[in-house]
Amino acid sequence: MISQQFLDELLSKNDIVSVVSSYILLKRVGGDFVALCPFHNEKTASFHVYPQSDSFYCFGCETGGSIITFVQKIENLSYIDAVRFLAQKSKMSFFEDDKENSKFFKKNEIFRVNREAAKFFYSSLYTKEGSNALLYLKSRGVNEKAIRHFGIGYSDSSKFSLCNHLFKSGFEEEILKESGLVFNNKTASLSDRFLNRIMFPIIDLNGNVIGFGGRSINDSYPKYLNTKETLVFKKGTNLFSLNFAKKTKENFLILTEGYMDVISLFQLGFENIIATLGTALTFFQSRLLSKYTNNVVIAYDNDEAGQRATDRAISFLRNEGIFVKVLKLEKEKDPDEFVQTYKEQAVYRFSKLIKEAKSDIEYRLQKIKNSISDNSDNEIIYLQKAIKVLCSIKNKMEREIWAKRLSSEFGIDKKTIIHQIELKEVKQKKKSFKEEIKNIKVSLSGRNDIVNKEKAKFLKAASAEELLISYIIHHFEDVDIIFKKISSRDFCTNFNARVMKCIEDFVKQRKMSQNITIHDFQNNFSVSEIGRIAKFFASDISKKDSIVNAFNYIDVVFSEKMRERIFKSDFSEVDTIKDYINVLKRCKK
Ligand SMILES: [Zn+2]
Questions:
Q1: How many angstroms is it from 321 CA to the middle of ligand 1?
Q2: Which residues contact 271 (CB under 8 A, 6 or more apart)?
């Protein structure tokens, strides 16, 4: 078990705002912070961090808790492992018991395996077996400096080279399998996953090798093979070369599709290039990007799939408030081919393409125009579609500029265009408002409540219990008065009773007039339960409530409890009925 003293020190060394903001961009609002939630995709920020109560809560997906819960969720760790993670971050020594079951230790071991594998792949490039791979890289114009910079390597075609090397280096079989670098083949012997491939290490923002991309050198299928999902590698959450690109002095990043695009452009002197790892840009990746830049130039492949990926990336990046431009290659398939084609002229020509890159709005409008033939009837269709595009601009000034352009292009009053955009916006808002109301109704009914499963059955009581708990948390000076009137045993729903019991135990043991914090619940509740408790801490209503409100909540709980007893009773319990009538009378007053 972790001692209280250790936890206290840990918490004093790690404040929730700095830990959370090492993952996402936080905006200060009053004394609190808000952000777009890292746990679900959303357009308006509903993720809150409350430094005062050392907690966070997302009103969108109802995730919440303490700094430890946050690390548990975002790093996918158990409670103990999250504590270990924070301890390592703040250079505290941490306990080493139960190593085998610890994801934290496993993750660290996988990093070590990957690092060793990367070194092995790199050195293999310069062996006899690697000579073809080296030739291949040279033929694609990759120079020594780039090979060193990106740690590019080679996995040879023997099935056991890496396996044997890693065993010799002292790693256990289990961790090798967990790293995704080896697997049990049909004859059940351990064998290398990557064969005869150029290996690109994928490095996270802390400098850990989290996985590899392997490109076949003889065009065997698949052309690109990535590390499968492991404890440290999750598809769609990282970007290739962001660890380098984040240091750039440029105020924009260039987003490409492939490893070779990044490497070719790096050799021209561009350091602000990143690549999605063989998948379409995800909201996790765009959220990560928004931490490092406000401007992204998309330079995806020059084909239909690339265009589709561009459209998707635009919407995700816009969502994060990033200004997007789209770079247009002429005939070349991708930036890598562009570099190979223009050789010495490539730097100048590519810089020119960057300068000429169109804003996402211009790009989208042009695409609509291209899809509609020139004919005056089609002007209306174009304008309707264009209005829809302009509707996605949140910035008023930017919107005005585009409305003005459309107005002069088609000889229509700018006000009419703005009016049309606003109408469309109202329609969209109504739709999302309806959706929101629907969700609130479901949540209020308690039907889908996975934390408090009895909520739907005791709806009135459960709501009163929640309000009462929130009140206590926000007005801890009144806790003794409240405990004189009600205890956890009087609660109707088990989950809320457990929360109340935890508060009672805290009060019994507390020193002086100490207030309860989110950490005091941590030991007795699961991650999703802590999320609900974080909601109690986040409640704005409770801050404004007075003790009179608290007494009302108590009355409701009692009256509901009585009602339940009456319904269950066979009317032999005369006292119960009398009690009930008394309570009802008291409530009516
Ligand atoms: Zn959320």
A1: 18
A2: 244, 245, 247, 248, 250
